[in-house]
Amino acid sequence: MDETFLDKLFATLAHDFAGNFYYQVACTVDEQKKVEERRRYEESEKERLEALKPLQLSFDEFRDTIIGKWRAIVMQEDTNAEFAIDQYCSAELNGLLDYFYGRNLFSGLDVRKGFLIMGPVGCRKTSMMQAFQNNPFASFRIVEAQEMVQAYKEVGEAAFNYFHITDKRNKFGHEHYEICIDEVGREERSVIAKGASFASTHINFIEEYIFRLYKSPRRLHLITNATSYDDLVKTYSEAAASRLLKLFNVVIFPENSPNYRLVGV
């Protein structure tokens, strides 16, 4: 047999063997690199979350932190605003402080439920809740009712769970954000999902959300300018209003609370 042919044959076999061998080695190395990168990522993520957890605050320190945040939020909205913990908000603030600190000393609060925050326009309901967004007990994100309605118009049924997410960015180390729905009662009341047939029924999304929440409770918060049960009935229906009172810890700012946006104007 031709020696040249044999040389070429052995050279080809050797090349193929070496190629397969190095390919296997490369795959193994690549897999090991992925495992190592994953391990490093998990370690760094764990370290990051631990680093983000604040030192254990005393109740007084927590109170001072929340009031400081609340003041900063109010002043950011209006640098000329006057800020004080007065007779229109002190009881409401104390209840939320106990609840979100996790000590539950304020009578009548159920930690399994969230808050229905009611009060007239401009009494600083939203800014107060913004100050509490990150807290030791159960942190939350604020979304507007109209955002949820718009989501329903865009994606349909998925909107009922669209805003309930898992997010590790919470500085208290929680891996889940609850939600606080703001501007409840000011959203569109009759909507239909994109792509629905002409014969499909329009719905009041927030009212339907309340009914579903009643059947399958989950802790969240609502903020509304309604100041009474009758207001809730007028906004939605008696069926929805009665469920709201059952589902939430109800906090009502005094009806004569000033509109702080107009104070000094």
Concise synopsis of the structure shown:
This protein has 265 residues and is α/β, with parallel strands linked by helices. It contains nine helices and five strands, in the order αααβαβααβαβααβ.
Write structural notes for this entry.
The chain is extended. Helix 2 crosses helix 4, helix 7 packs across helix 9 (238-247) and helix 8 packs across helix 9 (238-247). The chain starts with a helix and ends in a 13-residue tail after the last strand. It has 265 residues and is of the alpha/beta class. It folds into 2 domains: 1-52; 59-252, Rossmann fold (3-Layer(aba) Sandwich). The protein has 9 helices and 5 strands, in the order H-H-H-E-H-E-H-H-E-H-E-H-H-E. Strands 2-3-4-1-5 form a 5-stranded parallel β-sheet, with helices on both faces.
Descriptive key words:
alpha/beta, Rossmann fold, 2 domains, 5 strands
What is the distance, rounded to the nearest whole angstrom, between the alpha carbons of the first and last residues? 107 Å
Give the CATH architecture of the largest domain. 3-Layer(aba) Sandwich
Count of strand segments: 5
Strand content: 5-15%
CATH class of the largest domain: Alpha Beta
- Biggest beta sheet attributes: 5 strands, parallel
Tally of helical runs: 9
The fold-level CATH name of the largest domain is Rossmann fold
Radius of gyration: 28 Å
So what's the overall shape? extended
Percent helix, as a range, is 40-55%
**Oligomeric status:** single chain
- Kindly state the mean pLDDT as a whole number? 83
Low-confidence stretches: none
Per-chain topology:
Blueprint: H1 3-52, H2 59-77, H3 90-101, E1 115-118, H4 125-131, E2 140-144, H5 145-155, H6 159-162, E3 178-184, H7 205-215, E4 221-224, H8 229-235, H9 238-247, E5 249-252
Parallel strand pairs: 1-4, 1-5, 2-3, 3-4
Helix pairs in contact: 2-4, 7-9, 8-9
